[in-house]
Amino acid sequence: MDIFIQQIINGLVLGSIYALVALGYTMVYGIMGLINFAHGEIVMIGAMVALTVVKLLVNSGLPVFIIILIALAGAVAVCMAVGYSIERIAYRPLRRAPKLAPLITAIGVSIVLQNLAMLIWGRNYHAFPPILPDAQFDIYGATITSLQVTIVLIAALMMAGLIVLIHRTRLGRAMRATSENPLIAQLMGVNINQIISFTFVIGSALAAVAGLMVSANYSIVHFYMGFMLGLKAFTAAVLGGIGNIAGAVLGGILLGLIESLGAGYIGDLTGGFLGSHYQDVFAFFVLICVLIFRPSGLVGEKISERA
Amino acid sequence: MSYSRIPSMTFAIAAAIAMIGCSQKEAPKPVPAPVPVVTAPVAPPPKPEVTVQLGHVAPLTGPQAHLGKDNENAARMAIDELNGKGLEIGGAKIKFALVAEDDQAVPMQGTIVAQKLVDAKVNGVIGHLNSGTTIPASKIYFDAGIPQISGSATNPKYTQQGFTTAFRVMANDVQQGKVLGDYAAKQMAAKTVAIIDDRSAYGQGLADEFEKSVIAAGGKVATREFTNDKATDFAAILTKIKSKKVDVIFYGGMDAQGGPMTKQLKSLGLKAKFLTGDGGCTPEYIKLAGAASEGQYCSLPGVPLDQMPGGKAFGDAFTAKYGQIQLYAPYVYDAVMVMVDAMKRANSVESAKFLPEIGKTDYQGVTARVQFDEKGDLKGGAISLYQVKDGKWEYRETIGGAPVEMAKEAVKEAATAVKDAAVVAGEAAKDAMKDVAKEGAKAAADMTKSAADAGKSAAETTKAAIEKK
Fold it and tell me: Does B19 touch chain A (CB under 8 A)?
C-alpha cells in the first residue's frame, strides 16, 4: 500500500512540474494561437539564472529565504526580458504570416536559445546547491519532501492566479478580446501589440518560476533540460485542452500520474511482457485516445478557425 | 538588360573562387613517395608538407555534450603534440588537422556526419563516443575503407560485424559486464539486484552482460527497469524497485542520469547500494548526486591513470590546458596515438596502407598497453573499480589485470636491458684506450637507447667505469 501511495505522490509531483511549464504554453496559445516551442528553453534560462544567483549568494550569510527570493526575482526579470525580445524580434514580424511560419520560427528560437545557453553556461551539468529545506514528511510509509509540497502548491496557486487575471481583470478582458479577434479588438481601442507583449512577459515569468522549482527539485541544471520538459509540457497542455488554463494543470497531473503508475505497474500487470520503457508509449496512447474522442482536449473548448 | 547579367556574373565569380579554393586545398597533397634510403650524407631536398585529416566525432550538443567536448579536447591535444614534434612519414613532413563533428549522441546523426567525413576524405576517424552512434557509422567507414578507432564505444557488436576498419582502445561491455556482475554478487555480497538501463546501445548492452554475470555468480535479478538518456525523474521505477527490497541497484547509462537517480534513490529511502559502469564514473556523477553519492560504486576499463607510465603527465597536461578530465579523454588520446603509430610503421598516411598496421599495434598508451585481437578489440582489458569516499572517486581494485602485468613486465624487461647494456659498456671501456673507450661508450650508449628508454643510466654507468679506470 505504501508503494501505491508513493507512486501517486510521484505522479502528483511530476505532474505538477509538467503543469508549471504547461501553464506558460497554454497561455500564449490561448491568446495568440501560437505554439511557443521556445517555452521550454525559457524555463531552462530561468533555472540557469536562478542557479547563478544562488551560487553567488550562497556564502553571503543571507537567510535562505532571501537568497531564493533574490534568485527568483533575477530569474523572472531575465526571463521576462528574453520573452519580450523573442516576441519582438522573432514573432511580431510574422504575425500576419501563415501559421506554419511562426511555428518553425519558434523551433528555431528554441535551438538558438539552447546554444546561447551552452555558450554562456558551458556544456557541463550544474548541481543546484542543496540550500532549500529538505524536510521529509511521512504519509503511510510514503515520503514527500517539503520542496515537492511547495511545487504542488505553486502549480495550484499559479493556475488560480492566471484564471483570475484572465477572467476577472481589465487586462484579462483585453487579452480575451485579442484572442477572439485581434482586428476588432484593435478597433475597440485595445493596443494589441502591448497585450501580446504582456502575454509573453507573463508566460516567461511563469517559466522562470518553473525553472527554479524544477532545478531545485532534481538539483540539476543543464542547457538541454528545457527540451524534454517542453515536449512533455506541450503534451500535457494538449491533453488538457490547449488554451485552457485549468486544462493545462489537469493535463499535467494526469500525464504525471499515467507515467508514474505506468512505469510502476505495467511490468507486473503484463507479467513482464511490457516494461517501464513503455511508460511513454502508455502516456501517448492515452493522449491519442483523448484526442480521438475529444479533439480539443479534456476541458478545451472548440476553437473556431480564425480567418 | 545589364541587370540580368549580374546573377550570372556573380555565379561565375563564385565558381572561380570555389575552384581556386579547391585547387589550393588539393595542391599540397601529393602522393607520399617511398623514402629513399639516404646512404651518403648529402643535404636532403626540402621536404614536402602533407596535411593529414583526422576525423573526430562525439556529441558536442545535447545531454552528453560535456563528455563529447572532453573527447574532442583530448584528440586536439594529441594532434597539437604530434604537430609540435614535427613528424615525418613517407618522406614528407606531416601536419595533422582535426575535423571535429557533432553527432548529438543520436544514431541517425552519427551516420550523417560519418558520410560527411568520408566525403571530406579524412585519413582516419577517432570516435564516435557512444556505441549507439558508433555501430551504424562503422559500416560507412568500412565501405569507404577508412580506419576507425573509438576510445569509448564499448558495445560488443561494434567489432563483431566483421569490419576490418573497426577498432577500440577500451575493454568492451562483455568484459566489463562480467567483472561488474561478479563484483556485485561476490564483493558486494548482493543476493538480489535490480537493473536499470537507458535503452541506448551502450546501456542496454552493459546491463545485459551484467545480468548474465550476476546470474552466473549465483545472484538473483529481482527486476529490470528502463529509462532513457534524457530523463531526470526516476521516482516511479525506483519506487517499484523499493518494493522488491534489493541489495544492489545497477545502472547501465551515463552520469547525467546516474547522478540524479542516486539522489532520488536516497530521498525515497532505499537502502540498496548503487553500482554503475564507465558512463557514470565521472566527477559529474558525484556533483549531481551530492551527498547521496557517498559509498557508491563504479567501474572503468583500464587501470587508474596515475598507475600507468606517462599517465600522470598526461593528466596534468590535460588539466592545465582544458580543465578536469571528464571521462574518456585519456582513451581518445591513446586512440589518436595508436592510429599515428600505425601510420609511422606503415610509413604512409594513406588509409589503405596503414590500416593493416593498426591490427599489429603494440603501443604503450596512457590507459593501457594497446594490442588488438583479430576483431579489433583491446586484448587483456583490465577493469578497475572505484568507490566514492569523501566526495571523490577512490580506487578500489583492478580485476582481470593482464595489462598491469604486461606493463610491469615491460618495466622489468627495460631494467634488464639497462643492466646488460651497462655491462657491455663497462667492458668496452675497460678494454679500450681512452679515445677508443669514448667511442665504445658512445656505441654502447646508442645500443642502450635502442634497447630501452633508459640510455641515461647506462651512459652514467659507462662514465663511472671510465672514471674508475
Answer: no
What is the pTM assigned to this prediction?
A: 0.80
Distance from CA of B197 to the nearest CA of A (A): 10
Residue A144 within any structural domain of the chain: yes
Distance from CA of B415 to the nearest CA of A (A): 44
Q: Which of B224, B288, B291 sits opposite A220 (nearest CB)?
A: B288
Q: Which of A97, A187, A219, A135 is nearest to B288 (CA)?
A: A219
Chain A residue with Cα closest to B325? A124
CATH number of B49-171+308-367: 3.40.50.2300
* Ramachandran area for residue B415 (φ above 0: left; ψ -120 to 50: alpha; else beta): alpha
Q: Could B63 and A14 be called an inter-chain contact, meaning their C-beta atoms sit closer than 8 Å?
A: no
Compute the count of residue pairs across chains A and B with CB atoms less than 8 Å apart: 110
Cα distance between residue B153 and residue B125, in whole Å: 13
Which chain A residues are closer than 8 Å to B288 by Cβ? 125, 127, 219-220
Domain that holds residue A109: 16-234
Q: What is the pLDDT of residue A140?
A: 84
* Domain count for chain A: 1
Residue A212 within a domain: yes
**Each residue's pLDDT tens digit, A6-49:** 999 999 999 999 999 999 989 988 888 888 999 999 999 999 99
Q: How far is B257 from chain A (nearest CA, A)?
A: 10
Spatial separation of the C-alpha atoms in residues A235 and A255, rounded to whole Å: 8
CATH number assigned to the domain with residue range B174-301, chosen from the 4 options 3.40.1160.10, 3.40.50.2300, 3.30.300.30, 3.20.20.10: 3.40.50.2300
